[in-house]
Design goal:
homotrimer, about 170 residues, mainly alpha, two-stranded antiparallel ribbon, globular
């Protein structure tokens, strides 16, 4: 594979952009700046290589469509942040880990294998033709009791992106 | 009609405010700054004239209630951004058009005529008294697969306002 | 009770943080800076005393779980802002009151008493085991007609936290 060199200032710029965006959106980078920056560099390499910032810790399938769930931030970041305090790569960390500067450890891969992903997609497409049932939605809906923000995801977010309320201010809404 | 003069610094202030808000919210102004600023000026004129920033490219009906759907940003901006890359006035542009500095072109009017709007409103009021049916909501609900944000609108947003994920990371949820 | 001293710079820092967050999220502090700062100081005292920023105008029950609905911002802020233009403490004010620098007045307590809160919680837990009914959700769902943001709360927000649209641009969605 051709060697790709990313200038330090481009890596720093992505690191700064993600840090700032995170502050606004309730996300935090790895407290170890070296780890976070080397992952930013890897994202920029992947962007040059594949055209999109695919997760540095997974193998690109070569097409945007097939990589969609692992374009950073990946579909698995938020559940991993909540369960392990860190995403699969370790680029993102929970507020607790970020604040306490806890060293991060590897976590298990949550992404289903290719066959399961294809089956899930097929199942999703079939369900689109079925009537929806409020008691059988694909994800539970969580409600922030402070501001009424609702999000459909396996668990409530760590921090409400609208009002900043903590995880324990959410209730299951649907 | 009385001539209204808007000082340049007021126009610039609105332009800067909308630019900054857009950065936070995933919206972009026309890449042609002259066009964007002249529309900002027109919005400020309308505010002095009618008391609210009614769309410069539509006729005010004179009351806030009758103008509500075309107070900027109008109810038609987001679907137009997605379909044409630009809103009816050309004040807002898609990220692609903004980034590539594509010259913008006029687009068709999406706003229903007065009679249809009145009928729609009447239909909406009647439906409020009917039981809701999850398979017959007024808008589909789109879900960001990265952060779980859900929005009820004809199409998913160009950029997730919560986590910044792209349009193709959304799925139909309801 | 032990006397707790909060250094002025810590109070100022919280005041500035809440002001900035509010700007991004569509919330405003009391236009009387003295009132707002003394409430910030009281929040910091409560944080030292109880471990969380419990509302300065209510009595802490001593545990985070029992105080959850009155950790600032409390569950009652948003409905009070909409009805009275101010929260129970007067830390938060509506945009109108903030902009016009209206002096704020005491408002009635909206928080149910302890017994009712326990009954509500019990009812909520029981409902979690029942099938959901779209016509009987715990809160109505409001939809911003500009951007499609949906929130589940007694009334629509004063300002859409996603696109900045005003209260009257929301419609009842569910």
């Amino acid at each position: 594979m051709e060697k790709i060199i990313i200038p330090q200032n481009e890596t720093d710029a992505l690191f700064n952009k993600l840090t700032l965006q995170g502050e606004k959106r309730g996300y935090f980078l790895n407290p170890n700046t070296n780890i976070a920056k080397s992952l930013c560099e890897a994202l920029l390499k992947n962007e040059k290589r594949y055209g999109h910032q695919v997760c540095p810790c997974r193998l690109s399938a070569g097409s945007r469509e097939a990589d969609l769930d692992v374009i950073c931030p990946c579909d698995y970041r938020d559940p991993d942040l909540l369960k392990y305090g860190v995403c699969y790569c370790g680029l993102y960390a929970s507020k607790k880990i970020f604040t306490e500067k806890t060293p991060t450890k590897p976590i298990p891969e949550r992404r289903p294998n290719k066959e399961t992903r294809l089956l899930n997609k097929q199942k999703y497409m079939e369900e689109q033709n079925q009537p929806k049932d409020i008691n059988n939605l694909s994800q539970p809906v969580w409600r922030c009791q402070v501001c009424g923000y609702i999000a459909a995801r396996p668990e409530a977010p760590e921090i409400c992106p609208i009002c900043g309320a903590t995880h324990d201010r959410f209730e299951k809404f649907i």
